[in-house]
């Protein structure tokens, strides 16, 4: 056929073209018929069940990890404040005062006072651990008045310890120049 004849043919059939979409599964039915006429046996397509399963497992893993990260249990501090709201204000005041004195103590550390400073910091760590235990006892339903009193006493003990050690360091610093002045070479 020549080019003109093809164009003529398409012009004649122009309004007779079918614009409808084939039914679902048309391609599979066509290939089955084609293969059947050629004597080709087709194997059934194996379902890929592992892909949806792996997606579901990934979603479950992400959800589990998210649940672990987002802990809905309130912290010990939040529980203590719920039991005794005045504790947070008192703790903030004492903690800031103690932190200031600890910074002073660390600045005063020298070869002569190193052992004293280190021992003091160790004792403060023990007192802090005792305070945490008191908080836990308060949460567990202990006698709140007695425990709150013990918590305040713990703070006062830490402040007294720091003040006493700072006074001792000041005494050590003052004794050294006097001791050095009495030396003659």
Secondary structure category: mainly alpha
What is the number of E strands?
Answer: 0
- Name the poorly predicted regions: none
Q: Please provide the ordered H/E string of secondary-structure elements.
A: HHHHHHH
User: What distance separates the N and C termini?
Assistant: 128 Å
- Biggest sheet features: none
Q: What share of residues are in beta strands? A: under 5%
Keywords:
185 residues, 7 helices, 0% strand, rod-shaped
How would you portray this structure in words?
This protein has 185 residues and is mostly helical. The chain has a domain at 76-181. 74% of the residues lie in helices and 0% in strands. It contains seven helices and no strands. The protein has helices at residues 3-12, 26-38, 50-69, 76-83, 86-107, 114-139, 144-181. The longest helix is centred in the C-terminal third of the chain and has 38 residues, at 144-181. The chain is rod-shaped. It starts with a helix and ends with a helix. The model has no long low-confidence stretch (mean pLDDT 80).
Quick overview of this protein structure:
The protein is mainly alpha-helical and 185 residues long. 74% of the residues lie in helices and 0% in strands. The protein has a domain at 76-181.
């Amino acid at each position: 056929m020549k080019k003109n004849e093809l164009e003529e043919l398409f012009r004649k059939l122009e309004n007779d073209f079918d614009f409808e979409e084939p039914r679902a599964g048309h391609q599979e039915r066509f290939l089955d018929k084609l293969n059947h006429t050629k004597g080709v046996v087709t194997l059934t397509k194996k379902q890929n069940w592992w892909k949806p399963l792996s997606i579901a497992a990934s979603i479950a893993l992400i959800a589990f990890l998210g649940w672990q990260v987002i802990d809905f249990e309130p912290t010990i501090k939040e529980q203590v404040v719920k039991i005794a709201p005045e504790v947070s204000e008192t703790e903030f005041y004492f903690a800031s005062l103690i932190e200031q004195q600890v910074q002073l103590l660390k600045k005063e550390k020298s070869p002569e006072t190193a052992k004293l400073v280190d021992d003091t910091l160790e004792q403060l760590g023990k007192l802090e651990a005792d305070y945490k235990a008191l908080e836990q006892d308060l949460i567990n339903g202990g006698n709140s008045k007695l425990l709150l009193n013990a918590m305040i006493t713990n703070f006062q003990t830490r402040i007294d310890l720091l003040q006493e050690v700072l006074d001792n360091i000041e005494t050590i610093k003052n004794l050294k120049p006097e001791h050095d002045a009495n030396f003659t070479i």
